[in-house]
Amino acid sequence: MTRVICITNQKGGVGKTILASNLPVFLTAHGKKVLLIDVDPQANATFSLGLKPKTLATSVYNALMGQISPMETIKNTGFMGFDIMPGSQDLAGATVELVNMKNREFKLKEIVDRVKDNYDFVIIDCPPSLGMLTLNALVASDEVLIPVQCEYLALEGLDQLVGTVDLINQNLDRKIKILGAVLTMYNRQNKLSQMVAKDVRRNFPGYVFDAVIPRTVVLSEVPFYGRTILRYAPESKASQSFRELAQELIHNYREV
Length: 256
What we know:
The chain is α/β, with parallel strands linked by helices. The chain has one domain (3-251): P-loop containing nucleotide triphosphate hydrolases (Rossmann fold, 3-Layer(aba) Sandwich). The protein has helices spanning 16-28, 44-48, 60-64, 91-99, 107-115, 132-140, 158-171, 191-203, 217-225, 229-232, 237-251; strands at residues 3-7, 34-38, 75-76, 82-85, 121-125, 143-149, 177-186, 208-214. The longest helix is centred in the C-terminal third of the chain and has 15 residues, at 237-251. The chain starts with a strand and ends in a 5-residue tail after the last helix. 45% of the residues are buried.
């Protein structure tokens, strides 16, 4: 069964795109086929994988608007088993265009349902907000993965996100599960990082992954080179953290 996972947090700068663009390659190392869908108008995940959004003829936007088949937007990332449905700046206008569409909350789900059988995982990278695109991403998903940065106000907005998922389940007949939170930007020598990690684990018992994504220079460099951490620094602590996270993710599945 394909697992459709939305990576979201309405706070910006939490490591959401770093997760979305790097985690899939570690899943493919386990023989999994992965599709990443970039619905962030900034298209940072697309750029991080070496694609230039401005030069692409088609993106997920064109599929959302019903202009082309979803399959026509899919591109290979250069990693066997890892494809991407790229984002583009055109998505900035999609929020307005979707408002007057019938079943507007289900447009991305319709796309996902047409392509997901070709993959073990579909991962959706969202904008840093709870707008129409993120709503579409949540509705299209089975599970939600929440990156939480180990900095001040880390828990701000998490209750709102969990509440939004509950509202979607109640009002749109979905059964979305909170898969868990991933601690990002962790500095083991920083007392604040340690305090935040402890606070998050206390507030979400049983829903915080053991793997922790560190704050490292190499992770900030990889988007610039259009490469993943596995190819850029395979022996780094960051690579090891993603390797552990992929293993946890594969074995972490909660039945409804």
